[in-house]
Amino acid sequence: xxxxxxxxxxxxxxxxxxxxxxxxxxxxxxxxxxxxxxxxxxxxxxxxxxxxxxxxxxxxxxxxxxxxxxxxxxxxxxxxxxxxxxxxxxxxxxxxxxxxxxxxxxxxxxxxxxxxxxxxxxxxxxxxxxxxxxxxxxxxxxxxxxxxxxxxxxxxxxxxxxxxxxxxxxxxxxxxxxxxxxxxxxxxxxxxxxx
Length: 195
Hints:
By secondary structure, the protein is mainly alpha-helical. The protein is built from ten helices and no strands. Helix 1 packs across helix 2, helix 5 (77-94) packs antiparallel against helix 7 and helix 7 packs across helix 8. Residues 9-69 form the HTH tetR-type domain.
């Protein structure tokens, strides 16, 4: 009889990865502590050791996972803004199951730090109202991804499949979705230049 492999230690990262898989493949409403414990092959109560506030802490961690992006500053504030928006879009599209959390949870922790970093980068690159610009850019990205995920039929597919939805191509979305996103982003940047 082969020796049993020791169980993989439970960690915050493993919990979040398993929760993301459930949310992306079955939808956020199906993510329960019991289902998460089953996926991790532990009692649900073991999760509380890593997330003492339980489901609230888990929801915060999932929102933070898809909204705490970092990019290197570009040569201009426009280049930096585009890099932030593209990175944010990619992170949100990677995990459509937690898009609702990203839209509704107030920024805290690493997300709040990332927003401050983005605001500072844009201000240092010469943009006058960097806080207002960051709010507008985040709203644009969240809205664009919400429309894209809705049009993809992901919500219906999550009810029928056990595999996570993935963007049509690794580098981004469909050519039409990518072009629409870039067109809207360019228009927004032109508007921000005028203020």
